[in-house]
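Issue 218. Parser rejects a valid record. Input:
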Amino acid sequence: MELSDLIQTSQVENVRVHCPFKPPMIGTLCVSSHHLLLCDASVGDRDKREDIAELWLLHCAVDKVEKSVQNIGRLQNTENGQEMDVESGSGTVTLRCKDLRVIHMEIPGMEETLNIARSVQALSSLDIVTLSYPFFFRPPGYSLGHGWPRDTMENFYHKMRAETDDWRLSEVNLDFKICPSYPAKVIVPRICSDETLQKAAAFRQAGRFPVLSYYHSANQTALLRSAQPLFGTAPHHCKHDEALLNAALMEQSSGFIIDTRSAQEAKQARNEGGGTESKSRYRNWRVLHRPLERGHALQDSLVRLVVTCYDPSIGMTRWLSKLQAARWLSHVKEALSTAGLIAECIERECANVLVHGEDGTDNTLLLTSLAQLILCPESRTMDGFQDLIEREWLQAGHPFQLRCAQSGWSQSRAQQESPHFLLFLDCCWQLGRQFPRALEFNERFLCTLATHAYSSEYGSFLCNNEKERCQYEVQDRTHSLWGHLNQPKERQQLLNPIYQENPLVIWPSVAPQSLQLWAGEASCKIITRYLLYSSCFCMQVVYSMYTAAEYFGALDTLSISSI
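Output the parser choked on:
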């Protein structure tokens, strides 16, 4: 398949483009295989201008294409005085981007308008990994392989091995046959054989058996993650899975299992073969249900938020009402409070924790990564945070290609899309706002990650798991985002100038007055629009997001003793 076959019109003159935070541009619009380009005709001598105004947009960054055209006009023929139909119409193509920008293009000619819209729509909706731009991107001065790999499991294990010998690095999944969404190597209890792991994997959804996510050296406790057990409608058990979890307790007498579904949802999952750990079989583990929204519900929340923030016609009261109905801040609150609960179990109760939901690739990873950010000072550094994303999101099997296929502009029912990674970055921003000196990276870094997760020139966020990245030779054929961001010039712009290392646990507040809607900088905001005029101060009015009972009953952190 040739991408050029999808381009119906490759170039149009005298196109006017309106981009956020930039003056209107008029110039030549070009459609290439991967980009939409506009060179501003008003810049004059290009050799004398460094700040050339232009549009340079990846097709994969477009979330939605809208078009409108005007009727064909009737003009008079100057030779015979008769009227005739001529193609004097024009049209507008509106591009709603995954980073939530809105770009308007006024194009002369109806046919050109329709062709441009069809071309961008076709090129932006391609789902063929090897035809994506990272496989063609070759920036000068960069060599393939730079920045790969990032924090392999071996590096993480060797750091942990200095603290304990109770765990080992297993290659049971070296060929990805045991679990397609796990990395080739995983960390498991030392006393568990690979045979035990294989049989435990058969008892967990998609083969995602319990593995180590984080080791808290301060009190020798561990954070694990997995998928749900497969008990089925006629309950059966797996002694190997039970042995694996008992071995994971190490010297602790008991541990906690955080199920990201409600008790009712876990019970209903049994009708489809799933379920949650039973008290009779896992006597040393206590199950706590902390339901978090996922899938369509979370995607719909983002869509509602975007629609609300880009509606300039609503007044203050209605804006706040629609903001509350979107429930995005409620998701932020639940994620932070549950992560705080996990951290409390580990830090204050000195107990091991296992986190899982249904498949263990979305809310599970959201919670384990947030818990590490709360507990571990190293995770709050620039390098440590990159390692955390690599280990807990990319290597752990979050399906970025499916989840980030569309952003907040899609009005159609979500298929596999869900903004879990965007929710994670929002929670990180909340932590950075509550603890301004605790994070070595700044807001711009979070916005950059959000942008590249949805559309990127680099291969770091391609595919759905490590197996697919190996299959498409991503490390050998594309550039690493980390290699780019860690260049001295780029890195300097992403650092927090007031960062000060904090060896303590940072306990997030989930009280209503502590959470705000992430507006972001004007140049890189992700969650909401460049709010119009007086609506800006609505960001402070977060009290309306909760009922009075929730406000007065909110705690800075949840207490395990209250469960």
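Fixed in the parser; the record now loads. The longest helix spans residues 328-347.
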